[in-house]
TrEMBL record:
InterPro entries: AB_hydrolase_1 (IPR000073), AB_hydrolase_fold (IPR029058), AB_hydrolase_sf (IPR050266), Peptidase_S33 (IPR002410), Pro_imino_pep (IPR005945). One of its GO terms (biological process) is proteolysis. This is Proline iminopeptidase. GO terms for molecular function: peptidase activity. Keywords: Hydrolase. It comes from Xanthomarina spongicola.
Length: 350
C-alpha cells in the first residue's frame, strides 16, 4: 500500500512538473517537438548539413547547422565579413530556442567551416546571392516560413537577395548595415573618426594614406580605440569567446578583396567600393526589420531612413549597442527581433 502511494505521488509530481514547464518554457513543453531530431535526416550530424553549391568553377560544399524544428518559422543567418563565420551569431542560442524559432547557422563559401576554392571570381555579390538561393532550396525554405537575417556584410547580401528573390521570403532582417557604402564612408569620416582622440585619428589616417596596414601599430590603434567603442562595447579581455574565435577564423583574403583593409571605408580597388542600393529599397515589399545601434559603425539615423523606404518596414534601435549589438545590447536586440518575427508569423505586422 505504501509503495502504491509513493508511485501515485511521483506520478502526480511528474504531471504537475510537466504542466509548469508547458506554461513557463516552450522549449521544455512536454508536447513540443522543437528539439526532436528523431525523424530528421540530419539527426546523425546534430543538424549539420554540408550543402553542395553549383558554381561556374565546380561544385563545392557549404556548412550549415539547423537548430530546432518549426515548419512556420525558419531563420537563415548571413554572417558578416566578407569571410567571417556563423560564430558571431552563437548568442542566438540564448534566445531563439525559448521562443521555438528554428534557425540555421551558415558559413558562406570560402569561410572557415565551408569549402575554400580560393577563387576570387566567385567573390561577388551575384555569386553569393545564388549561393543563398541554393541553400534555401536545400533546406526547404519558402515564402511560408523563410526569414533571412543578414548582419554587416550579410546585410548587403540579404538586401541583394531580396532585390532578386523577395517572392521566396516571409520576412527580412537587415542588422547593422547601411544600403550605401558611400554613405557609410561619409559617416565614418565625418562623425566617427573625429570622435577619436585627434592624435590617434591622425596616426591612423597617416598609416592608411601610406598603405601601412600591415604595421602592428595600425591594428593596435584601431582595436583599442575604435573597436571597443563602435564594434563591441566591451573591454577586449571581456569579449565573448565566440567573437574572438570568429575573428581568428576570418578569411583575410576574401575580406581584403571585397572590403579592403580599413574600418573607415572600402579601400583601394576592393569590389564593394561604391555599392549602393538605396534607391531600390522601395521595391522590397517583404516585411522588413532594420536594426541600428547608437554607437554602431553604421549610421543609425540612416538605418531608420531605410526602414521608411521599404513599403513594409520597421526600425529597431539598440540604444546601448554598437556593430555587434546582438552582444552589447542583447536585451533590446532580441526583444525587438523576436517581436518582429512573431508579428509577421501571426499576420499582425504593420
Amino acid at each position: 500500500m505504501k509503495s502504491n502511494i509513493i508511485i501515485c505521488f511521483c506520478f502526480l509530481v511528474f504531471c504537475f512538473g510537466c504542466q509548469i514547464k508547458q506554461n513557463s518554457n516552450p522549449e521544455t513543453n512536454c508536447d513540443s517537438t522543437y528539439l526532436d531530431y528523431s525523424n530528421s535526416k540530419d539527426q546523425f550530424t546534430g543538424g549539420i548539413n554540408m550543402i553542395p553549391i553549383t558554381t561556374p568553377k565546380g561544385t563545392f560544399n557549404v556548412w550549415t547547422k539547423r537548430v530546432g524544428n518549426n515548419p512556420k518559422i525558419k531563420v537563415l543567418l548571413l554572417h558578416g565579413g566578407p569571410g567571417g563565420t556563423h560564430e558571431l551569431f552563437e548568442c542566438f542560442d540564448g534566445y531563439f530556442p525559448n521562443e521555438e524559432i528554428e534557425y540555421v547557422y551558415y558559413d558562406q563559401l570560402d569561410s572557415y567551416y565551408s569549402d575554400k576554392p580560393n577563387d576570387s571570381t566567385l567573390w561577388t555579390t551575384e555569386h553569393f546571392v545564388e549561393e543563398v538561393e541554393q541553400v534555401r532550396k536545400a533546406l526547404n525554405m519558402d515564402h511560408s516560413n523563410f526569414y533571412l537575417l543578414g548582419q554587416s556584410w550579410g546585410g548587403i547580401l540579404a538586401m541583394e537577395y531580396a532585390l532578386k528573390y523577395q517572392d521566396n521570403l516571409k520576412g527580412l532582417i537587415i542588422s547593422n548595415m547601411m544600403a550605401s557604402i558611400p554613405e557609410y564612408e561619409k559617416y565614418a569620416a565625418e562623425v566617427l573618426g573625429p570622435q577619436l582622440d585627434p592624435e590617434v585619428y591622425k596616426e591612423i589616417k597617416d598609416m592608411e594614406a601610406n598603405n601601412d596596414f600591415e604595421n602592428p601599430r595600425y591594428a593596435e590603434l584601431v582595436t583599442t580605440n575604435y573597436y571597443t567603442e563602435h564594434v563591441l562595447r566591451m573591454p577586449l579581455n571581456s569579449w565573448p569567446e565566440s567573437i574572438t574565435r570568429g575573428f581568428n577564423h576570418l578569411n583575410p583574403s576574401i575580406y581584403i578583396y571585397m572590403q579592403g583593409y580599413s574600418e573607415f571605408g572600402v579601400t583601394g580597388n576592393a569590389t564593394l567600393k561604391g555599392w549602393d542600393v538605396s534607391d531600390r529599397l522601395k521595391t522590397i515589399n517583404t516585411p522588413t526589420l532594420m536594426i541600428g545601434a547608437t554607437y554602431d559603425t553604421m549610421d543609425p539615423k540612416y538605418m531608420e531612413w531605410m526602414s521608411n523606404q521599404v513599403p513594409n518596414g520597421r526600425f529597431l534601435l539598440c540604444p546601448n549597442g554598437s556593430h555587434f549589438s546582438q552582444y552589447d545590447d542583447q536585451k533590446n536586440y532580441f526583444k525587438g527581433l523576436i517581436s518582429f518575427i512573431k508579428d509577421v508569423d501571426s499576420g499582425s505586422f504593420n
